[in-house]
Design goal:
The chain has eleven helices and 17 strands. By secondary structure, it is α/β, with parallel strands linked by helices. It binds nicotinamide-adenine-dinucleotide, ligand AHE and zinc ion.
Length: 370
Amino acid sequence: MRTTAAVALEAGKPLEIMDVNLEGPKAGEVLVEVKATGLCHTDDFTLSGADPEGLFPAILGHEGAGVVVEVGPGVTSLQPGDHVIPLYTPECRECEYCLNPKTNLCQSIRSTQGQGLMPDGTSRFSMLDGTPILHYMGCSTFANHTVLPEIALAKVRKDAPFDKICYIGCGVTTGIGAVVNTAKVEIGSTAIVFGLGGIGLNVIQGLRLAGADQIVGVDLNDAKKPMAEKFGMTHFVNPNEVDGDLVAHLVELTGGGGDYTFDATGNVGVMRTALESAHKGWGESVIIGVAPAGAEISTRPFQLVTGRVWRGTAFGGARGRTDVPQIVDWYMDGKIEIDPMITHTLKLDEINKGFEMMHAGESIRSVVVY
Ligand code: NAD
Ligand code: AHE
Ligand code: ZN
């Protein structure tokens, strides 16, 4: 079939809207009509050329929601008409990783996914002249139709709006999951969140859900403050307005440091500040941000010797087929909020404007509706 997509032809160039060929689903695969997709900073990171796994030409996008159109041979858990959220972290429920309760990082298709290919080592997308186009993070939601493995789709309730629940495909689950699955924050905790964008705001709403007492937000952009307060931030710090050492300021503000700190910027200098502003003896710092190729984190080992813990999280530690339908229920039941964070709704041919607003710090989440 033919479908319309925003194609990343090369790093650093705007996406190009074009018709592309899409082959139907093979064994174990599912054809999905994408109804809506969010624009995550990670899409921008890959498009910039900073992602060591970034390959071109590719169809980016990994924060979608849509409807099953057709299933390939052997697919048993989904049928046409089902509503689904694509999962860049699949859940096969069989591999060594899925069987280990300590991780959500299903590895059953990770190597082909990282090469922009389906599990059989081929792509379903091509240009109209036959040139193959690569998949991205196993999702490619910047296409109106896409093909995914069955294990990379969460089946969700049909009354949930696509243009909101697409955000659960990455940002919402990553932020809330970092709090409840990875850090396992306790009631009454003190926390510091660095970066109040599409991920950091969801960390903040996760902290509120978990019953944190003090939630400090740190961002260079003052315009992020009102939204963060709406989601539960109790104190705001702009590093540019702090006289002297930022770590010392945060340690004083929190009475010794955060029980939990979170990096949602992708800046390795910020990651160090986050670790060092965690409380001596027990503070845990969670890295969410994705750093460019070649970037490395550093700190004095003494920071860890004296009891701080440094860890990371992918997709908020969530097991997608199990946890994502539940997060959709939380949204539909009013336990979590999504709507105010979706600041812009765009058509596919406006997608580059969405990235421009991200760069300018004008948006929280832009969502493309097909
Ligand atoms: P975003 O652009 O919406 O937000 C980033 C925020 O960080 C902005 O508000 C910006 O002003 C702030 N910021 C930038 N530099 C800062 C600094 N030095 N100090 C304080 N604040 C600073 O991005 P997002 O969509 O929220 O994504 C955040 C990060 O999380 C990205 O690196 C993204 O790739 C990553 N991410 C990781 C996962 C995961 O599973 N680990 C999932 C989604 C996104
Ligand atoms: N390809 C990059 C790493 C990118 C990365 O860390 N991705 C996160 C999800 S970001 C979603 O917005 C992730 O899930 N990582 C685990 C994995 O297996 O990719 C690089 O540095 O090579
Ligand atoms: Zn993302």
